Amino acid sequence: MAALQSQDALPSAAYGSAWPVPSPKPSATATPKPAAKASAKPRTSASPRPTTSASAGAIAPCKPGDIVLSLFTSQASYSQNAQPQFNAYAVSTAASQCQMAYGAGSVRVIVTKNGQVVWDSAGCKPPAAKTVRFQRGVPQLLTISWNRHATSPSGCAGSLPAGAWGTFQAVAMITGQTSPVRTFALLR
User: Fold this and answer.
1) Which end of the chain has fewer CB atoms < 10 Å from its terminal CB, N or C?
2) How many angstroms separate the CA atoms of 17 and 42, rounded?
3) Per-residue model confidence as pLDDT tens digits over 57-70
C-alpha cells in the first residue's frame, strides 16, 4: 500500500512468477546472523561499508544503470514463528568508483501475494541510508528482516493477517533499479 500511496510503481515482474536467479554461494562474510529479538523495524545484520580509496579525489555519484540489484531470501520457506530475512546485494558495473546512499533507508523490500502488497519495508520508517563507495564487482550486502507479528507502527506490520500462509513474492527497489523477483513460502 505504501508503494501505491507514494506513487511508486511496482515492476511488472512483481505480479508474475519468479525469475530464475542462481542462489548465492554462502560465505562467512555474507551469512546473516539470526535476529536476537523481534522488532517492527527492518534490521540490518550486515551494514554496507565504504571501500577505501587510494586517491583523495572526489567520487562521482553512481548512475542507476551502473548498479545491479539482487535479492535473496535466507530460506526457501519460513515457519509461522520465523521472520523472513531478505539479503539485498548491490554491485557496481561502473569502470571507476562511485558512491550513493545504500542502507535500510534507501532500499525497499516489497512483499506481495497474488499481486497485492502485504508488506513494504519503507513503512517501517528506517533510518536514513549512509553514503557508500562502490567498486566495480564488489557487492554491498544489506539484510532486512520482516517481523510478521509486528503491530506497531501500523505501516510496518503490513496487511498480512495472522496465520496467513502460502507462496509470496519479494522484490528489492532502489532509485532506478529493481531486483528480480524472489519467491518464498510461509508455512502453516
Assistant:
1) C
2) 25
3) 689 999 989 999 99
